[in-house]
Amino acid sequence: MNKLIKNRFLRILLHALVWLALFCLPYLLASSQNLNVMVVAERVIVPLVLSALLFYINYLWLTDRLMFRKKRLLYFLINIALIALFVSFRMWAREFFFVPDDNGPRQRPPVIFFIYFDSISFLIPWAIAVAASVFERWIKTEAERKESENARLQSELEHLKYQLQPHFFFNSLNNIYALVDISPEQAKVTILALSTLMRYLLYESNTEKVSLTKEAEFLLRYIELMQLRTSANTVIETDFEEIPEEAQIAPLLLIPLIENAFKHGISATKQNRIHISMRFTDGWLHFETRNGNHPKNETDRSGSGIGLKNIQKRLELIYPDSFTFNKGVEGNEYTARLTLKLG
């Protein structure tokens, strides 16, 4: 509201300064001459007042109510009538404010010359009024479009984030379910660890950005949670370098990469190795996961693909042109690398 009032005040001030300059200009240009009041009235005051009337009739009323509503024929007819009326008034003003020349009468140009000249001069404020109205309408339309686009993007981001939370919760419950019969004690520990993670999900990640340090702690806790259900033939390596306190990131952006590494990087019959690293250098976050390449067969529906699609979409919305995200098979490993500009 304050911004709207401020913009309106600045617009009124700008208009006032422009018209003040136009009215003062003749006096400034002829400051050394003795100007006759009648001549000033006929040649300066009257045409400027009429030009201002024509400008504001179009700028404040006609252009918006007729031209923009596609009543263009009526719009042009009214303007033709207004210009004809103002030209007639100018003709009358010339006679009313006429000052005889001390050197005797001079031959005046024909009436048609004044009609032509006045008509052309009144087209200028009309054209400026149309241009100003069209420009302001374009500015307003563009602002509304951007506001609508921002609202749509925000809504989409919220949808993606809330889509990820139940996805994460579902995966964690699957892990606990797998431990209930095998190791009830581990299942209890897992439930406690999950409650800590869910507290972060519910109460600390409901913001646009979170501390990268807290996000890293959340990731490490999740890795610990996942370790509880892995067997001895799985080696998990983490390399998280020290992160500056001021660094911030969109919440839950990295967790799908870790979920993906555990979901698709562990085989029951082979030796497994999962490596997860995080570095922060000169404002750039470097995050990488490497795991064994164990493709799922067509009957295995454990991987819905929500996580990686989610992270790709969120990166495009939140960090356009500020990231590189590559994933694929390198040798015997599946690697995902994210480089993200945060500072």
Describe this structure in words.
The protein is α+β, with helices and mostly antiparallel strands. The chain contains eight helices and seven strands. The protein folds into two domains: 36-146, no CATH class; 183-341, 2-Layer Sandwich (Heat Shock Protein 90). Helix content is 63%, strand content 14%. It has a five-stranded mixed beta sheet with strand order 2-4-5-7-6, with helices on one face. A two-stranded antiparallel sheet has the order 1-3. A hairpin with a 2-residue loop joins β4 (272-281) and β5 (284-292). α1 (2-29) runs antiparallel to α2 (37-67), α2 (37-67) crosses α4 and α4 (111-182) packs antiparallel against α8.
Attribute tags:
Heat Shock Protein 90, 2 domains, 14% strand, 7 strands, alpha+beta, 343 residues
List the helices and strands in order: HHHHHEHEEHEEHEE
Give the CATH level 1 class of the largest domain: Alpha Beta
Mean pLDDT: 80
Number of helices: 8
Low confidence ranges: none
State the strand order across the main sheet: 2-4-5-7-6
Beta-strand content estimate: 5-15%
* Percentage of residues assigned to helices: 55-70%
Number of strands: 7
Described by strand count, sense and barrel closure, the largest sheet is: 5 strands, mixed
- Give the radius of gyration: 37 Å
| Classification by helices and strands | alpha+beta
CATH topology of the largest domain: Heat Shock Protein 90
